[in-house]
């Protein structure tokens, strides 16, 4: 079994990764990190040996980040939990770019753990 | 127009040196034939400059029609750039360029035999499709055939071919205008476009497909066979690894899309890139390249002298473009060159405005002064804003969003061109060139502010270093701001 965490290129990404680590440790499973950024992500803060693999976006088929995550779930059937960090979005932003979180909650076939960014 | 010139993604590999021989000559022939695409592009966009006036008399339309005739080609080009981008991936470079040449022919004959404005507009739109697709396909084909030592100069050659095509169109238009008479003369001007289109079509029949594209389709043996044609055998085999790496890199560059604009630093970069495209077009370069003859008539040249004076514009553009490629582009920092360019261009526009407002009409001195100032402006644009902007666009985006981001910026650039070129004759018709250049001058001031405050300097840094800076929110990468810590002696 493993926990899959979705890390986008934003503050939410850092919180999601943190929550993913906590969840994986609590369930004593490994962690699969889905990197939705267009670069590399820094896994220095993650305990050694916890990360089973990192899935990155590469090429045209990964243009839609939602597809990347759903494909990763299909390719890793032992992942039985998805961790994401959700944030408030403006209606305009949501209209223009859609909501990755909403898509994942509705379409993922495993239970989804949504954490929120702490209000500062 | 290319996004593949002078890019610095390629890390140097140790390869056997290029040796002269039949493969080198074959490569030269390929470069010449493919450059016909750029030449054709220049000729087709430039030929309207000079053909418009007789066309207007013959078919009977006003300044709005003038705007439409010129701008429909650009609407086609914006669409052609997108469709062409897909075709070069799916169909291959060679077939796309051949299809382009064929569409060039269809569009050309459509224009030549157009009985009225409506048919002419449709034909110009079709021509635009080929122009836009060629602007994508030709530089990519050239850069993929070229060995890495010659990649920069082959890509730049396409840009030079465009301005040379425009210059030749001006010259041939002036000759035809002086030899033939009657309102039908524009049809003779346009039919000349068919010659380079034929040359491109039949030339490309004998050209090989790009090895990088073959590799991206998994046709490794075919790719090697092409490499053997254009390289010595040891070199061909050694270069296959690089071809493979570049094919993978290209696939990776198509990763990002709309959803990544949700990331603020990426969104900011894409907006800056799009504004840079707008800035390049609102320099007014194409207004001069398309309406030079009319503009010079407004400035005071006679109907017969204006097409000849217009040749000066074409020659200046070629000189500026050549100086840029062979000297300026690698000599100065990217941002410095572009900033200098927008300032020099805006000053020229200010002087044109001043001359047009203060010197009374009907003065030969005025006509010559405006010609001189227009050429000064064109010279600076070609020297600093054409190739450097394309290179900057090819360098400023992180690899995994490069395909999407440059595509979007090129679309915005064509749209800006289209808006300017459509409104130019209407503004000039209603208020004269003085108002047009006043508007360009004011926009120019805004562009100077934008370039100074928002454009990152991309030259002299690896793409990885750039990406780190951008992701950390440091966009300007101001060299002077680097703290001088640890230099105490």
Automatic annotation (TrEMBL), chain A:
Gene3D superfamilies the record matches: 3.40.50.12370
Residue intervals of the UspA domain: 56-116
Highest taxon, organism lineage: Bacteria
InterPro entries: UspA
Stated name of the protein: Universal stress protein
Organism: Nostocoides japonicum T1-X7
Species lineage: Bacteria, Bacillati, Actinomycetota, Actinomycetes, Micrococcales
TrEMBL record, chain B:
Single GO cellular component term: plasma membrane
Coiled coil (residue ranges): none
Superkingdom of the organism of origin: Bacteria
Family, as annotated: Belongs to the major facilitator superfamily. Sugar transporter (TC 2.A.1.1) family.
Cell location: Cell membrane
Gene field: iolT
Protein name: Major myo-inositol transporter iolT
Main subcellular location: membrane
InterPro entries: MFS_dom, MFS_sugar_transport-like, MFS_trans_sf, Myo-inositol_Transporter, Sugar/inositol_transpt, Sugar_transporter_CS
Membrane topology label: Multi-pass membrane protein
Residues spanning the membrane: 29-48, 68-85, 97-115, 121-142, 162-180, 186-205, 269-291, 311-329, 336-359, 365-393, 405-427, 433-451
Entries under Pfam families matching the protein: Sugar_tr (PF00083)
Organism: Nostocoides japonicum T1-X7
Keywords for this protein: Membrane, Transmembrane, Transmembrane helix, Transport
Major facilitator superfamily (MFS) profile domain: residues covered: 30-459
Single GO molecular function: transmembrane transporter activity
PROSITE patterns for this protein: MFS (PS50850), SUGAR_TRANSPORT_1 (PS00216), SUGAR_TRANSPORT_2 (PS00217)
